[in-house]
Design goal:
The complex is a heterodimer of chains A (277) and B (254). Chain A has 277 residues and is of the alpha/beta class. Chain A has a domain at 1-90 and 206-277: P-loop containing nucleotide triphosphate hydrolases (Rossmann fold, 3-Layer(aba) Sandwich), CATH 3.40.50.300. Chain A contains ten helices and eleven strands. Chain A has helices at residues 46-54, 80-86, 98-101, 108-119, 124-137, 143-147, 156-168, 186-203, 214-220, 247-254, and strands spanning 5-16, 19-31, 35-39, 62-64, 67-70, 73-74, 91-94, 174-178, 206-211, 223-228, 231-237. Chain A has a six-stranded mixed β-sheet with strand order 7-8-9-3-10-11, with helices on both faces. In chain A, strands 1, 2, 4, 5 and 6 form a five-stranded antiparallel β-sheet that branches. Chain B is of the alpha/beta class and 254 residues long. Chain B has one domain: 3-Layer(aba) Sandwich (Rossmann fold). In chain B, 36% of the residues lie in helices and 26% in strands. Chain B has nine helices and ten strands. Chain B has helices at residues 44-52, 76-81, 99-109, 115-125, 142-154, 172-189, 200-206, 224-229, 235-244, and strands at 6-15, 18-28, 33-37, 57-64, 67-69, 82-85, 160-164, 192-197, 209-214, 217-223. In chain B, the strands form two sheets. In chain B, strands 6-7-8-3-9-10 form a six-stranded mixed β-sheet, sandwiched between helices. In chain B, strands 2-1-4-5 form a four-stranded antiparallel β-sheet, with helices on one face. The chains are: A alpha/beta (277), B alpha/beta (254). The A-B interface holds A 41-42, 139, 156, 185-191, 193-195, 197-198, 212-216, 219-220, 251-252, 255-260, 263-269 and B 39-40, 142, 171-177, 179-180, 183-184, 198-202, 204-206, 227-228, 239-249, 251-252, 254.
Chain lengths: 277, 254
């Protein structure tokens, strides 16, 4: 089976007044129809990796790669039109905070319908029908009512479900979720993750799950990539996390205060300069 | 308990029609670290703000060191004794003032003379050298900013620290450093902490006792040891406990 996505030596850099900032420095991986987690601290380049795949890197940044291809399409040399058609239709992205990522002056229903009509020839009635079905699939109890609500009228958990509905309505093959639950309450997080998990496995999508929470990622994904300073320091199966070799991965795992483990003070990461080489 | 350092009795806070706090009572003993847990909108931050005089108290009593506080009037002596650290270090520091200015401000307000010495000591205490003194907030990372916010709270040498989600805007690895710092200063200065968090792991790590809040009410009070041992009375607390353990595929009945 050929992979859905091939990333080879991806680099993203930003020219600034004080010199070039290299956010991603040679990341390589392949993705099939599986769940891949990308973990790291802020500034490790995990989000920029996701954005480069999606084609959302700011115009002044430089993106280079030996290969960056999605189902045989070379993303870097593809025409803007091709990329626009991919975005939303075949590759979709869920962002962190529904408060900022939904359009505040457009009802939730219209935003979902917009995704659909942009990519498919559908009538208004059919588009509405499919949007309602999708809202139901993300377990919104009263889809008819939520369809006409504006983003400020719903809770964070509801907003994030609407976001998932919007991203999945066109049936993408690859979903990039950038910290999809970090802005949500702990209790709501699990519900949203449960919904996401079910939809991803039912539809056989590929998923890239970007997060700083190693434990959450490992419980959700099949495979985990750990990033530090723009590079991959370790790649391992989620089930294998206990045997992580790199001190950075071990540090990330250990530094979380857990219920029932009495460790004072908490172990902290001792960042070694050679990790960033 | 009459020995409580901070106590709230039947506290009610209303915003227009909405009851943010509904008949809430807590007692915090001297030198204790007390946790408030709950989801957003449960009123945990409102309780903290009510103590600091930042929320409209409709009825009920707040007592700090046996002084009854009326409404949301607080005098200077109160703020010298009670300081607060806010959630978002990106929002709680003045973007156009140097760290030096921000640390000087509380000292100027309270007419403290030895500013120079105190600023250097505060910076040293939070693990940032004097090299950070004349920087601006945008030149610091999130963890460093939160250290500055803690330094600003400590510079008046208060005995009570109100902490509103002090680490939830930080990375897990930086969170550990800030939590360690908070524990260190509590030990060194024998401070009383009231700490709000939505993360049960953080609260059980930091606090001896905690109150679980939901919809503006305290639904359960328990000690961290009880929580760890699973001696939980309320269903809601149990849900929070499950949620903090991470995602489990089998557990999702959807």
């Amino acid at each position: 089976m050929s992979p859905l996505l091939t990333v080879d030596d991806l680099k993203v850099s930003f020219p600034t007044r004080t010199g070039v900032v290299e956010a991603v420095r040679g990341v390589s991986f392949t993705l099939g129809r599986e769940r891949l987690g990308i973990v790291g601290e802020s500034g490790s380049g995990k989000s920029q990796t996701g954005r480069a795949i999606m084609g959302l890197t700011p115009a002044h940044a430089r993106v280079t790669a030996k290969t960056l291809s999605f189902e045989g399409i070379d993303l870097l040399s593809a025409a803007p039109k091709v990329r626009r058609d991919l975005r939303g239709k075949r590759i979709a992205m869920i962002l962190q905070d529904p408060k900022y990522s939904l359009n505040p002056v457009m009802s939730i229903g219209r935003q979902i319908v917009e995704t659909l009509t942009r990519h498919e020839k559908v009538g208004r009635a059919e588009a509405r029908e499919r949007a309602l079905d999708m809202l139901e699939a993300v377990q919104i109890r009263d889809p008819g009512r939520v369809f006409d609500l504006y983003p400020h009228e719903v809770s964070g958990g509801m907003g994030q479900r609407a976001m998932i509905a919007m991203m999945l309505v066109a049936g993408p093959e690859l979903l990039i979720a950038d910290e999809p639950t970090s802005a949500l309450d702990v209790t709501v997080q699990l519900e949203v993750l449960g919904i996401l998990d079910k939809l991803v496995s039912d539809r056989g999508m590929g998923l890239i799950f970007v997060s700083h929470d190693l434990r959450l990622v490992s419980s959700f994904c099949d495979r985990v990539i750990v990033m530090y300073a723009g590079k991959i320091v370790e790649e391992l199966a989620a089930s294998d996390l206990a045997n992580a070799k790199h001190p950075y991965t071990q540090g990330l795992l250990n530094c979380m205060p857990a219920i029932g483990s009495d460790r004072h003070p908490l172990p902290v990461l001792d960042r070694k300069p050679e990790w960033a080489l | 308990m009459t020995t409580a350092t901070v106590s709230a009795e039947n506290l009610v806070v209303t915003y227009d029609e909405f009851k943010a706090l509904d008949d809430v009572s807590i007692d915090v003993a001297p030198g204790e670290s007390f946790g408030l847990v709950g989801e957003s909108g449960s009123g945990k931050s409102t309780l903290l703000r009510a103590i600091a005089g930042l929320a409209p108290v409709t009825s009920g009593k707040i007592r700090v060191h046996d002084r009854v506080l009326v409404g949301n009037r607080r005098d200077k002596a109160f703020y010298r004794d009670v300081q607060m650290v806010f959630q978002d270090p990106y929002g709680s520091l003045h973007p156009r003032q140097t760290i030096d200015r921000q640390l000087l401000e509380p000292l100027a307000i309270h007419g403290v003379a030895d500013g120079e010495r105190r600023i250097l000591k505060a910076l040293d205490e939070v693990g940032l050298g004097s090299g950070f003194r004349f920087r601006y907030p945008h030149q610091l990372s999130g963890g460093q900013r939160q250290r500055i916010a803690i330094a600003r709270a400590l510079i008046l040498e208060p005995s009570i620290l109100l902490l509103d989600e002090p680490t939830s805007a930080l990375d897990a690895s930086v969170q550990a450093e800030v939590l360690n710092l908070l524990e260190q200063v509590r030990r060194d200065r024998k401070l009383t902490f009231i700490m709000v968090s939505h993360d049960l792991g953080v609260v059980t790590h930091m606090c001896d006792r905690l109150a679980v809040m939901q919809n503006g009410r305290v639904v359960e009070r328990l000690s961290s040891a009880d929580l760890v041992a699973g001696r939980i009375g309320e269903e809601y607390t149990r849900n929070l406990m499950v949620a903090s353990k991470g995602f489990q595929r089998k557990g999702v009945a959807a």
